[in-house]
């Protein structure tokens, strides 16, 4: 049993400062799987090391995606390690061999949690979801379902279900993203509206959006140059602004 602080310090450097220098990295399997099961930030940080063992050392982890799915909670858009998590989730969900029900469950859970996410997280997760649709066309039924959310008395998706295969995500529709099309931030509304059009085959590069902060978003808005809006077609002359105003001969608006 390690203190939480020490766990985090070890897991942050494990993937690049420890595993590459070990003769047998597989010795860390038990340590990482236990860390992955703890939950919260420790589970997020264990993802890096687990990915190396799965990808390079043939580690089999049958419940890997179920556990990854369970890590998606409201805090995922606010935690310090958000960029690291979504970078790895993007890698894990890139395989074309994943079943449609699994990817649909991730799309629905990310979309549902997005309803309470800050704008900087939304500008990252909406392109992330669009990329999932590009990789897994079978999931597009969530967008193109006949009658959409209006035709449903209630959403069949079960948010509380821990098993992705039992969540009924493929029977649902993506009404959450439709709701975000009315978001108060214009960039978020514009990003969400892209699902109303046919998606291009080229994936969006989300690497520059992973660490987008609220400060950067605010700074960008403040530095925007406002265009001069014409308020009057004819320049005002005289006291009453009429074209042939007799007062214009005797009064000015300086």
From TrEMBL:
Give me the Gene Ontology terms describing cellular component.
Noc4p-Nop14p complex; small-subunit processome
Can you tell me which family this protein belongs to? Belongs to the CBF/MAK21 family.
All copies of the CCAAT-binding factor domain together span: 43-192
Which residue ranges run through the membrane? 31-54, 85-107
Reply yes or no: does the keyword Ligase apply. no
Q: Which domain of life is it from?
A: Eukaryota
Q: Which organism is it from?
A: Pygoscelis papua
**Protein name, per record:** NOC4L protein
InterPro entries recorded: CCAAT-binding_factor (IPR005612), Noc4 (IPR027193)
Q: Which UniProt keywords apply?
A: Membrane, Transmembrane, Transmembrane helix
User: GO biological process annotations for this chain's record?
Assistant: ribosome biogenesis
């Amino acid at each position: 049993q390690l203190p939480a602080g020490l766990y985090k310090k070890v897991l942050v450097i494990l993937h690049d400062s420890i595993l590459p220098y070990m003769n047998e990295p597989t010795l860390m399997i038990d340590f990482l799987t236990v860390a992955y099961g703890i939950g919260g930030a420790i589970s997020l940080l264990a993802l890096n090391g687990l990915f190396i063992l799965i990808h390079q050392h043939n580690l089999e982890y049958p419940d890997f995606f179920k556990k990854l799915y369970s890590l998606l909670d409201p805090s995922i858009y606010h935690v310090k390690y958000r960029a690291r998590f979504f970078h790895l989730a993007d890698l894990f969900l890139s395989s074309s061999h994943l079943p449609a029900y699994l990817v649909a469950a991730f799309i629905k859970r990310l979309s549902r949690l997005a309803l309470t996410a800050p704008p900087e997280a939304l500008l990252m997760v909406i392109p992330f979801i669009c990329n999932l649709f590009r990789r897994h066309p079978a999931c597009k039924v969530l967008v193109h379902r006949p009658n959409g959310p209006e035709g449903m008395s209630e959403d069949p998706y079960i948010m509380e279900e821990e098993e992705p295969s039992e969540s009924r995500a493929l029977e649902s529709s993506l009404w959450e993203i439709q709701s975000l099309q009315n978001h108060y931030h214009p960039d978020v509304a514009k990003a969400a509206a892209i699902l109303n059009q046919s998606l291009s085959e080229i994936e969006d590069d989300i690497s520059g959006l992973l660490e987008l902060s609220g400060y950067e978003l605010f700074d960008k808005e403040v530095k925007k140059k406002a265009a001069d809006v014409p308020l009057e077609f004819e320049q005002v002359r005289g006291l009453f602004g009429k074209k042939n105003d007799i007062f214009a001969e005797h009064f000015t608006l300086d």
